[in-house]
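Suppose you are handed only these lines of text.
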Amino acid sequence: MIKKLTPLRIGEVRVDFPVVLAALAGYSDLAYRLICRRLGAGYCATEMMLDRLLLIEGKLRRRLVKITDEDHPVAGQLLGNAPAVMARAAVVLCEMGFDVVDLNFACPVRKTLRRRRGGYLMCRPDLALEIVRAVMAVSSRPVTLKLRRSFDEADRDNEAFWEIASGALEAGVAGLCVHGRSVEAKYTGPADWKFIASVKRKFPDATIIGSGDLFAPADALRMLEETGVDGVAVARGAIGNPWFFRQVRDIAAGREAYKPGLAEQREVIASHFDHVCELYGPRRGPRAMRKFGIKYARIHPHPREVRNAFVDVKNAGQWRDVLEKYYADR
Ligand SMILES: Cc1cc2nc3c(=O)[nH]c(=O)nc-3n(C[C@H](O)[C@H](O)[C@H](O)COP(=O)(O)O)c2cc1C
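From them, the structure of the protein bound to flavin mononucleotide can be written out as follows.
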């Protein structure tokens, strides 16, 4: 069992509990961050945001960078490949009140790689470090990196990783979030926790956050213990189970993991729905919630039936009908 859980430190930012919400495109928007925070997530990252989009004032930027008083500390994650543009976008994040600027050198999506962004930078340490230095020069907030262990699956020496990690830490970044898969592997195969442990061993004084295969609350504690990292970022395990954070806290304190009843699930899903409609508007909101409904259904006693019901939802009325029909406490 875990010996001692210490708060997470990211530069001057303190996070009371070291299990945090990972950056999740399509999921870790303001609405879901607020829900996760109420259920125990002390630190969250935004979805990755294309640097160029943050330089254009308008509706999209307003939505992307929207944070509320409740949504702190929060990392704004940037995606891009031009050092000067990344730096300008970092300034926007600082001005908008983000607590941390996080740089994505990890995204494995084909379109992102084709545009030489995200995970592509794992095979361009020179450019990655140029970006780091450009952002560090202008950021008034701590800067962190999201990295994968390598670009190619076959590269077991992870040379580019070490070059980027050492160079960035020398340049003064406040921490690294390490996903223990190669870019090429995308999400297949197990995440390499031994590699994550070796990163912490190599940089004992740096803040290292581990990522990969945290599907159940106990996995989060196991990663902390087995790898020695300072924090862990929960991704797929938290989609549709925002109680994950409360459950980890329970287990860490020696209690049984909390299980929300149907009435509470309904209340949380309804609140999430309201936040989503506020963020995306009443027309886009119900559709934007569909993918969450599908995930929320997984912890319902009748997952398949509820999933199908959520898939068919097109408007707020139908959404409320599903909650009414399947989430009434019997
Ligand atoms: C749907 C989805 C979206 C993701 N979006 C991002 C993102 O925007 N930025 C990022 O750094 N990582 C992103 N990731 C990677 C996760 O943060 C995490 O590193 C990865 O899923 C491994 O953790 P897991 O195995 O516990 O899910 C995403 C992963 C998924 C599944």
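What can we learn from it? Residues 8-252 form a domain with the TIM Barrel fold (CATH 3.20.20.70). Strands lie at 8-10, 13-15, 19-21, 44-50, 74-79, 100-105, 143-150, 175-182, 208-211, 231-234.
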